[in-house]
Each structure stands twice: as C-alpha cells, then as structure tokens.
Amino acid sequence: MNIALMSHDKKKELMVQFCAAYKSVLAKHNVLATSATGRLVADATGLPVTLFLSRAQGGAQQLGARIAYNEIDMVLFFTDPNSTMDPWQDQTLVEILHLCDAHNVPCATNLATAEMLILGLDRGDLDWRTISRNGQGFL
Fold first, then answer.
1. Domain holding 112: CATH number?
2. What is the pLDDT of residues 89-115, one digit of tens each?
3. Residue 54 falls within a domain, yes or no?
4. Which residues, 6 or more positions from 128, have their beta carbon under 8 angstroms from its beta carbon?
5. Are strands 30-33 and 74-78 parallel, antiparallel or unpaired?
6. Closest residue by Cα to residue 47 from 12, 22, 78
7. Residue 108 domain boundaries
8. How far apart are the C-alpha atoms of 129 and 136, rounded to whole Å?
9. CA nearest to 78, candidates 96, 105, 61, 66
10. Rg over CA atoms, the chain
11. Would residue 139 count as lying in a domain?
C-alpha cells in the first residue's frame, strides 16, 4: 500500500513520533511524503520515504495527482487546528480532502484517526484498496 504523509509545521514532530511508534507497520508499505515531513520521518525512523516537492513548491499537487490516479491508498495529513488560518481557508487541505473523498482514499487529519487507520491497515482491514486499485472491483 502507498501511504502519503503531510503535516503542518506545528505537527511535524507529532508525525515523526507517530511514524516511530508505528514503524513496524509502515515498514511493510511504501511511504511517500512532502519534502520536509518526509526528511524528518526518514531521519528519525530509518524508513525509506519517497519525497515529493515541498508543499509550497507543489508537493501537495503531486500528491493530489497521485490520489486522482488511484496511486495512493491512505493519506495522513496532520493539521494544526490552532493555526490562525481558518482550516477551510487552507486550499491545500481542502483540495486533498476533496480528492480523498472523491476517490475513496482513507484520510486522517489527526492522531486518533491516524491510529485507527494504521491499526486497521495492520489487521488487513484496508486490503480492499489493493483490489480496487487493481481494477478488480469489489465483488
């Protein structure tokens, strides 16, 4: 499975801690991330991480294109709810959430949901993504 990581600046350390805690699960999958988040995760965990551009340089658009082409199976985008910016004014967040909804890609924007997705992934609850991605449908 292809797992994409993004995080707002104030949530990057939380993303690193999350990936360190679930390193054994993530190691069984392909991890992709925007530049700064991906480098921090790779340095802290030793996991191989495929890097997109930084968010400001188009990394979110690269991720969005992969979602649209059904090449991403899960998105973990740790957002900062305490940011001075209204989350619905964050165009990157809105676009990624829209694409995940449009293409049935599980997406977490906080630690609690990310843990549920990772634990489900480890149990095999998301194996339907592989079937769907391979064009075999659900029946």
1. 3.40.50.1380
2. 678 888 999 999 999 999 999 999 999
3. yes
4. 138
5. unpaired
6. 22
7. 2-133
8. 10
9. 96
10. 14
11. no
Position of tokens 């690193």?
16
At 29-73, the pLDDT tens digits run: 999 999 999 999 999 999 999 999 987 888 899 999 999 999 999
Number of structural domains in the chain:
1
Q: Among 40-44, 78-82, 131-135, whose mean pLDDT is lowest?
A: 131-135
Can you read off the two tokens belonging to residue 13? 């350390």
What are the strands of the beta sheet with 74-78, ordered from one edge? 49-51, 30-33, 2-7, 74-78, 107-108
Cα–Cα nearest to 51, from 61, 64, 37, 69: 37
User: How many helices (H) and strands (E) in the chain?
Assistant: 7, 5
Q: Return the structure tokens found at 58.
A: 């188009």
90, amino acid identity = D
Residue 124: what residue type?
Answer: G
- Hey, which residues does 108 pair with through a beta bridge? 76
Q: Is residue 138 part of a domain?
A: no
Among 12, 8, 26, 5, residue whose Cα is nearest residue 84: 8
User: Encoding tokens for residue 12?
Assistant: 């990057």
User: Would residue 75 count as lying in a domain?
Assistant: yes
pTM of the model: 0.89
